[in-house]
Amino acid sequence: MIGILDSGVGGLGLARVLSDTLAEHDVIFLGDTARGPFVNNSPALIKSYALEGARFLFEKGARLILIACHDISSAAATAITENFPVNLIDSVTPSIERSLKVSKFLRIGVIGTRATIESGIYEKKIKAIQPETMVYSFACPLLLPIVEEGWFKKPETNMIVKKYIQPLKIRQIDTLIAACSYYSPLCETIKRKAGKRVKVIDSTMVLADYLVEFLKNHPDFDQKLSRKGVIRFFLTDISGPIEKIAKKLFRKSLNLEQITI
């Protein structure tokens, strides 16, 4: 079974893509909506919450876990692999690999939550692979609540996106990583505001592509994954607003199950 670990419901966009591209595979999604998103939590607290979430997925039968949340990827990916015998794909590595592949001048911008940007994980990992790369990061705290409100095409959203991206454009970036699963619905707006010369990396789509390629390259492991076409959605808290944004991100009604971890 494939597990998706998230701190909220932004990863439902990833679940939607997988429901199309890997329709036969069983998928289990966990969003820690009672405590997340983890945008303002410390790395230690994020790791603690993430380990509880990973344990839930593992006990439900997940043997491949995708971390949809960049905050979890930066704070807890190593701890999860140390504590559970699972294959793990974080949300940071695929975006880094894609950005280095498409960047012509190695001038890469990153937008994300405060927790992701303050972790410095993109700068560290990119420079470890390609030391001469210039990496410019910018926290965009208003984008997540904008998505939660469903303001995908509001004039105010256009202005805020432009405001956030402008400091990176001044740095003459040629590639921009949208380093948050919640940003996927805004990627068309981000592309317009970034300009034609900037390649925008939608981390959700890149993570889905990375998984498909991983399974193709590991057919023996892939054959061990259950295939009944079942997808289940677990949240640690369910409310009207959460149900509303979940429906918008998955693009249809969902059977959400509330659990305690």
Structure description:
It is a single chain. The protein has two domains: 2-90 and 205-258, 3-Layer(aba) Sandwich (Rossmann fold); 92-204, Rossmann fold (3-Layer(aba) Sandwich). Helix content is 49%, strand content 17%. It contains twelve helices and ten strands. Strand 1 (2-6), helix 1 (12-21) and strand 2 form a beta-alpha-beta unit. Helix 4 (92-102) packs across helix 6 and helix 8 (155-170) crosses helix 9 (187-194).
Keywords:
6-stranded parallel sheet; 12 helices; Rossmann fold; 261 residues; 49% helix; alpha/beta
Q: Helices and strands: which structural class?
A: alpha/beta
- The CATH topology of the largest domain comes to Rossmann fold
Fraction of helical residues: 40-55%
Q: For the residues shown, what is the average pLDDT?
A: 95
Q: What's the overall geometry? A: globular
Assigned CATH class of the largest domain: Alpha Beta
Main pleated-sheet profile: 6 strands, parallel
State the order of secondary-structure elements, H for helix, E for strand. Answer: EHEHEHEHEHHEHHEHEHHEHE
Number of strands: 10
Low-pLDDT residue intervals, each spanning 5 or more residues = none
CATH architecture of the largest domain: 3-Layer(aba) Sandwich
What is the domain tally? 2
Count of discrete alpha- or pi-helical segments spanning 4 or more residues: 12
Cα distance, first to last residue? Answer: 19 Å
Share of residues in strands: 15-25%
* Rg for CA atoms: 17 Å
Strand line-up of the largest beta sheet = 4-3-1-2-9-10
Layout of helices and strands:
Blueprint: E1 2-6, H1 12-21, E2 27-31, H2 43-59, E3 64-67, H3 70-83, E4 87-89, H4 92-102, E5 107-112, H5 114-119, H6 121-129, E6 134-139, H7 143-148, H8 155-170, E7 175-178, H9 187-194, E8 199-202, H10 203-217, H11 219-224, E9 231-235, H12 240-250, E10 256-258
Parallel strand pairs: 1-2, 1-3, 2-9, 3-4, 5-6, 5-7, 7-8, 9-10
Helix pairs in contact: 1-10, 2-3, 4-6, 4-10, 8-9
